[in-house]
Automatic annotation (TrEMBL):
<dbReference type="Pfam" id="PF01053">
    <property type="entry name" value="Cys_Met_Meta_PP"/>
</dbReference>
<keyword id="KW-0456">Lyase</keyword>
<protein>
    <submittedName>
        <fullName>Cystathionine beta-lyase MetC</fullName>
        <ecNumber>4.4.1.8</ecNumber>
    </submittedName>
</protein>
<dbReference type="InterPro" id="IPR015421">
    <property type="entry name" value="PyrdxlP-dep_Trfase_major"/>
</dbReference>
<comment type="similarity">
    <text>Belongs to the trans-sulfuration enzymes family.</text>
</comment>
<feature type="region of interest" description="Disordered">
    <location>
        <begin position="1"/>
        <end position="26"/>
    </location>
</feature>
<dbReference type="InterPro" id="IPR000277">
    <property type="entry name" value="Cys/Met-Metab_PyrdxlP-dep_enz"/>
</dbReference>
<dbReference type="GO" id="GO:0019450">
    <property type="term" value="P:L-cysteine catabolic process to pyruvate"/>
</dbReference>
<dbReference type="GO" id="GO:0019346">
    <property type="term" value="P:transsulfuration"/>
</dbReference>
<dbReference type="InterPro" id="IPR015422">
    <property type="entry name" value="PyrdxlP-dep_Trfase_small"/>
</dbReference>
<dbReference type="InterPro" id="IPR006233">
    <property type="entry name" value="Cys_b_lyase_bac"/>
</dbReference>
<dbReference type="GO" id="GO:0030170">
    <property type="term" value="F:pyridoxal phosphate binding"/>
</dbReference>
<keyword id="KW-0663">Pyridoxal phosphate</keyword>
<feature type="modified residue" description="N6-(pyridoxal phosphate)lysine">
    <location>
        <position position="206"/>
    </location>
</feature>
<dbReference type="InterPro" id="IPR015424">
    <property type="entry name" value="PyrdxlP-dep_Trfase"/>
</dbReference>
<dbReference type="GO" id="GO:0047804">
    <property type="term" value="F:cysteine-S-conjugate beta-lyase activity"/>
</dbReference>
């Protein structure tokens, strides 16, 4: 399909990265498995002529997804990795070197922190965590050797918004790189590179998959940073499996519809929870009462289905009674699939730049594609158990 700059994101999702005329008319790019790629002549192998050289670096299946994602994200290029965390590590390893200083939002996905405090530290990179709401105030934390700033908006547990254009302006003025974990919004709701992000990461495990049946990551970058991202990906040979990429392509074609429904149902559930007497606060940037609402409204075109709820203080046994009897909400990590999930969480043990004192038990909800009325009834029964055990 020829690229048409006038096409909207929904059209791009359907058509990007595939050309039926090259697949005997079949709509989808097939799964290419393989390590060896044969060259037709001595000259071709000597000069590595041809698009494909070896299975770790590129296959037509990989290209189908990376080309589509590049178009969707407004990037110069994308690599696809076996998990979202792997995509984050590629972004970080592409941006920093020994002796560099890195700034990471205190709200970052916890394994991102563990990578910074573990691997990056061992290789001579110092990480400082900052208050996610710092905005242009990040300037005060920038050092001579600050090479990169990692943002995540909203934080995937605590849901603080970040003023990414303001941060990007400061960081770019000092020659630094802005890396973003954009998993919550996807490029459909937040076009990262248009807003000043140099390297954007998506855990495709979540909304791209939509099925809770695969692990995958994508790292996209603008023209200045893609060569480093591509080199890092090649050095680690961090290639994803062809079946998983095929499943991700299948998810991509319907992601727009699913995301809208997750967002619509999520906001309805968030409003309903806000009105519950057992609830202290709802952490959801699309709610006007949320401290990050103005930034969300300015920079994002919608919300996904993940948000937080702080309960009014109650005994732990009452929380357990509520959660243990839920029929539709599963308790488990990850999110973005068709099924609703809830997890209890506590950011206090690992925060270093900010404190986490929510005032009650914290729950993270992912609203799936069930009927909202059924989800409310499940929680209604849960709140009744909570009250009975309080
Ligand atoms: C915000 C965020 N980023 C990245 C990841 C990592 O994705 P994966 O599980 O594919 O490694 C997750 C996973 O939960 C996440 O929530």
């Amino acid at each position: 399909m020829r690229k048409n700059p006038n096409h909207g994101p929904a059209t791009r999702l359907v058509h990007a990265g595939r050309d039926p005329s090259e697949q005997h008319g079949f709509v989808n790019t097939p799964i290419y498995r393989g390590s060896t790629v044969l060259y037709p002549t001595y000259d071709a192998i000597k000069h590595r002529r041809g698009r494909y050289n070896y299975g770790t670096s590129a296959t037509p299946t990989m290209d189908a997804l990376t080309e589509a994602w590049t178009e969707l994200a407004g990037a110069a290029g994308t690599v696809v990795t076996p998990s979202g965390l792997a995509a984050l590590t590629v972004a970080l390893m592409a941006a920093v070197s020994a002796g560099d200083h890195l700034l990471v939002t205190d709200s970052a996905y916890r394994p991102t922190r563990q990578f910074c405090d573990g691997v990056l530290k061992r290789f001579g990179v110092e990480t400082t965590y900052y208050d996610p709401t710092i905005g242009a105030g990040i300037a005060a934390l920038m050092r001579e050797n600050t090479r990169a700033v990692l943002v995540e908006a909203p934080g995937s547990q605590s849901f603080e918004m970040q003023d990414i254009p303001a941060i990007a302006e400061v960081v770019h003025a000092r020659g630094g790189t802005v890396i973003m974990d954009n998993t919550w919004a996807t490029p459909l709701l937040f076009p990262p590179h248009e807003r000043g992000v140099d390297i954007a990461v998506e855990a495709g495990t979540k909304y791209l998959s939509g099925g809770s049946d695969l692990l995958l990551g994508l790292t996209s970058a603008n023209a200045k940073h893609f060569p480093a991202v591509r080199r890092t990906f090649d050095h680690f040979a961090l290639c994803a499996g062809p079946e998983d990429i095929f499943l991700a392509l299948r998810g991509l074609r319907t992601m727009n519809l699913r995301l809208r429904e997750h967002g619509r149902a999520g906001l309805e559930m968030a409003r309903w929870l806000q009105a519950r007497p057992e609830v202290l606060r709802v952490l959801h940037p699309a709610l006007p009462e949320d401290p990050g609402h103005a930034i969300w409204k300015r920079d994002f075109s919608g919300a996904s289905g993940l948000f937080g709820v702080i309960l009014k203080p109650c005994p732990e046994a009452a929380l357990a009674a509520m959660l243990d009897g839920l029929e539709l909400f599963g308790m488990g990590f990850s999110w973005g699939g068709f099924e609703s999930l809830v997890i209890p969480f506590d950011c206090a043990p690992y925060r270093t730049a900010t404190t986490w004192e929510p005032g009650g038990w914290a729950l993270r909800f992912h609203i799936g594609l069930e009927e909202v009325a059924d989800l409310k009834a499940d929680l209604e029964a849960g709140f009744a158990r909570l009250r009975a055990a309080s």
